[in-house]
Amino acid sequence: MVFARINGVSLHYRHEPAPGRPVLVFINSLGTDFRIWQDVADRLAGEFGFLFYDKRGHGLSELGDAPASIETYAADLATLLDHLGIAQVTLCGLSIGGLIAQSLYKTRPDLVDRLIFCDTAAKIGTAQSWNDRIAATLSTGIASFADGVMEKWFTPDFHQRRSAELTGYTAMLSRQLPAGYAAACTALREADYSAATPAIAVPTLVVVGDQDGSTPPELVRGLAVAIPGARFEIIASAGHIPCVEQPEALSALIADFMMGHSGGRT
How far apart are CA 201 and CA 115, in angstroms? Predict the structure, then answer.
């Protein structure tokens, strides 16, 4: 385990450099830690450098002052990249991670070579939906609504055939720091990058699971339409977390996208 003091908090991260190769930075969804990307990374190993990290208040990373904003999370990532001496990356953000990627591109475009958005949008949810989630988190706890979240994260087939993994991901969600989870919900409630997305001018891939219950395909398609030249793909038999449910399909899309815009795979 590796940690760095970033903007006043201790962030947990893993850096796997690959000299001469593009660097992929994976940005996690709400209520997860960076282990969700392992199956994707295993399939892309040797082709790219990797940076995984837990955003503040998630996984093993410290929360610091709350509430946070999407801009706070983006500033943390920018400072972590500067700390590691990484000059330019491809951001791969899932859900809230996609909003963090949008914010980082807006504030530090020099760091961003390409963008991959997974199951995300320029704005996610409503103020009321996030207020309800925050209230439940701080009163009855994350475990009280974890089963409902799993129905959005994963398809019925996953629930039926991969029950051991389902139990593990339910535990991952339920064991997040309530204050850190609520802080991220607050950031999501306030975030709206609708006006910024048309200004994205780097190669962009937008993907979504066909059965995503948190950011449905048509919502995610709207993000792709707003970004000039963006590529949009739907992953079959996947919910909100395709890196867990369909890592082979997501890895293939990432590899094809990277090959089209860099030396990449041969």
Answer: 10
Mean pLDDT for the stretch of residues 13-40: 97
Tell me the sheet residues that pair with 112.
89
The region of weakest confidence among 55-69, 128-142, 216-230 is: 55-69
Enumerate the H helices of 154-196 as residue ranges.
156-161, 163-174, 178-190
Chain centroid to CA 128: 23
The number of beta carbons lying within 10 Å of the beta carbon of residue 20 is: 7
Mode of pairing for the β-strands spanning 49-53 and 9-16: antiparallel
H-helix or E-strand spanning residue 252: helix 247-261
Report d(CA 185, CA 73) in Å as an integer.
Answer: 12
The phi and psi torsions of 17 (rounded to 5 degrees) equal: -70, 155
What pTM value is reported for the model?
Answer: 0.96
Mean residue pLDDT across the chain? 96
Distance CA 227, CA 196 (A): 9
Using CB atoms within 10 Å of the CB of residue 180, give its burial: 0 to 12 exposed, 13 to 18 middle, 19+ buried: buried
Residue showing tokens 């979504």: 208
- What one-letter code names the amino acid at 31? G
* Neighbouring residues of 45: CB distance < 8 A, sequence distance ≥ 6: none
How many degrees, rounded to 5, is the angle at CA 22 between CA 110 and CA 107?
Answer: 20
Using the predicted structure, report yes or no on whether residue 264 has a pLDDT greater than 90.
Answer: no
Find out whether 55 and 30 touch, Cβ atoms under 8 Å: no
